[in-house]
Every structure is written in C-alpha cells, then in structure tokens.
Design brief:
Distance between the termini: 11 Å
Strand content: 15-25%
Bound molecules: zinc ion
Number of domains: 2
CATH topology of the largest domain: Nucleotidyltransferase, domain 5
CATH class of the largest domain: Alpha Beta
CATH architecture of the largest domain: 2-Layer Sandwich
Helix content: 25-40%
Radius of gyration: 20 Å
Number of strands: 10
Structural class: alpha/beta
Order of helices and strands: EEHEHEHEHEEEHHHEHEH
Oligomer: single chain
Number of helices: 9
Strand order of the largest sheet: 3-2-1-4-5
CATH superfamily of the largest domain: ATPase, nucleotide binding domain
Largest sheet: 5 strands, mixed
C-alpha cells in the first residue's frame, strides 16, 4: 500500500462459539464504533447467523464498497485452498455448525469481494502482532480459553498452518492426583479443553466462571492443568511470549491479576527450572515472567481486529 492511499474499507468477522461479531471500518478504532458493528448469538445456528450477517454486510457494501472480508472463525476449519471444502468448518463439537461453508456463503452473497479466512486464534495472533502485545515479536503464541480452548502460533514471522492448523486445546495434560473430573470434550474427555474450557469449569463446579468463589479448588486445577499445557507449548515452539485471551482468564471472584500470577507460578513449577531463560524467571529475581504470559493488549477486540488484519493482508497480496 502506498503511503498516500487510504486504508481499505474492510469487513471483519469474528466467529466465536458464543457469538459472532461483524464490523466494518478502515482501522481497529472504527471497528469498535457501535454503528459499524453487528453481534449475533451463535446459538441461533449457522443458517440464521449467516443470513443476518450477509444481509447486514450487503447493506454496508451498498453504502460503501467493501474491499475485503476477513474471517477469524472457531474450528476446526478446512484451510487447504486445494480442497473442495476450503473455508468450511469441519468436525466441530458445536451442534449444527459442522460443514458450515463461510467462504462459499460470502462468495454467493458478496461476489467479487476477496475473502481471507483463518482460525480465530491465528486471526487474534495477527491482530496482536500488528497492534497489540506481540508487536515486534516473530515467535509467539496466542491462546484463548472460553467456550473452547485454542492456540495460534507465529513462528519465524509466519502463522503456523501445516497439515491443518494447530489444535492446542486438545493436547493431553497429565492428570492431577485425586482429580476424578471426567472432562467434557466429546472427542477426548479430559484433554486440556475438556478439563479447562468455560463449559468444563461449569460442569466441574455447577456454576459459570463468574459465580465461582476465589477459594474454590477448581481454580487450582485449572491453573495447574493450564500451566502444564503452556509448558508443553514452551517446550515445543519456544515462543518469546504467550498471550492468553478468552473469557476464562477473567476468573470470576479470583480476578484476572490473581489468575495470571497463579499461572506464572504454576508454569515455573511445571517447567521446574529446565527451560533456562530470564523470560521465565520471576520479575522479583530480575526475570521477565510478568511480561511472558500476558493478557491480549487488544482485550476482547483481539479477534475482530485479527479478522481485519487477515483481510488487510489479503488486500495487500492482491496484484
Ligand atoms: Zn479434546
């Protein structure tokens, strides 16, 4: 993009397990304006969600042409451009959403507008890289813990896709002795997501995260399992920072600050001094762990800003 050209008019769609947020604008600040934004609960099912979003976007497009659409969606997604189901949701446990064809639907309703699609977490990672907590870092991981758990990784300045895309939420974590909670993942039971997602926390305690007391043992389990999962990521990808978003981090009565402090402490315990880096030592010991695991700088806007970043990248790649 030349310096004197105005930024592109973009539609950004964050498709989450609880709600889909669609916004139009040229900058992250414009995406935040209520007049530029539509939120649709995901429980109403894909047909209704897609119908409302595409109708709204068609109106926006008629008012001012959209130059690209960016979609950051929960998955799993088919991201192989050579596949007939490219741009669709595949084996999701979310009822009714299997085989939802994001790309096809936008191609039909907004023909000629280029669409970029990636996982919600890869999108959020790109958003944080461009405007947030990962600026200047080419090796980091963005995690979300909410309705599900997922992770997007940037390695050497590139978002990792590989065979499909990473599914960090479904990694296995070692069982804590004495914990007999079966987990809620329909595929694996007690994978990380099965033990530590919002629905898992609710199934374990019988109440939603915001209603769980600060001294409930569920937080201890959650922090220790999550620290093991993050330890696995540290050992596998060697990220320079972990950004942890999603609703679970707000941690109800425990609070976000205590949640992050507990997570940093448990990560040190899980790694047990093996991965030697000042970044993993406590700030009181001259280390930087308080800057190593951090909440998203874009807050709850990371996903929708990420969708914008995906679309901007798509426009920039066009001849
Ligand atoms: Zn699983």
């Amino acid at each position: 993009m030349s310096a004197d050209r105005q930024p592109s008019h973009i539609a950004a769609l964050e498709a989450g397990g609880t709600k889909c947020i669609c916004a139009v604008g040229r900058t992250p600040d414009e995406l935040r304006l209520l007049a530029n934004r539509l939120e649709v609960p995901s429980d109403s099912g894909p047909q209704q969600v897609l119908a409302r979003i595409t109708a709204w976007l068609s109106t926006q497009h008629a008012r001012e042409p959209l130059q690209a659409i960016g979609i950051a969606s929960f998955g799993p997604l088919d991201l192989d451009p050579a596949s007939p189901s490219y741009g669709s949701i595949t084996s999701t446990p979310k009822p009714g959403w299997r085989n939802t064809d994001w790309l096809g639907e936008f191609a039909r309703t907004l023909p000629g507008v280029p669409v970029a699609i990636d996982t919600d977490v890869n999108g959020a990672a790109l958003g944080e890289w461009q405007w947030g907590a990962a600026q200047g870092l080419d090796d980091f991981v963005y995690l979300t813990m909410g309705t599900g758990i997922g992770g997007g990784a940037m390695v050497g300045g590139r978002l990792v896709h590989g065979l499909l895309h990473p599914e960090m939420g479904h990694m296995r974590v070692p069982r804590i002795a004495g914990d007999d909670f079966a987990g809620v993942c329909p595929f694996h039971g007690d994978c990380w997501e099965g033990l530590c997602s919002g629905p898992a926390l609710q199934a374990r305690t019988g109440t939603a995260a915001h209603g769980i007391a600060a001294d409930d043992p569920a937080w201890g389990y959650l922090l220790r399992y999550t620290a093991h999962a993050i330890g696995n990521i540290v050992c596998t990808l060697s990220p320079r920072r972990i950004i942890l978003g999603g609703s679970v981090r707000k941690a109800g009565a425990l609070g976000e600050a205590a949640y992050f402090a507990g997570l940093r402490r448990e990560l040190q315990r899980s790694l047990n001094g093996y991965v030697t880096s000042a970044a993993l030592r406590g700030n009181d010991e001259g280390g930087g762990i308080d800057d190593y695991i951090v909440p998203p700088a874009l807050g709850d806007e990371a996903g929708v800003c990420g969708a914008m970043a995906l679309a901007q990248r798509r426009v920039a790649l066009q001849p």
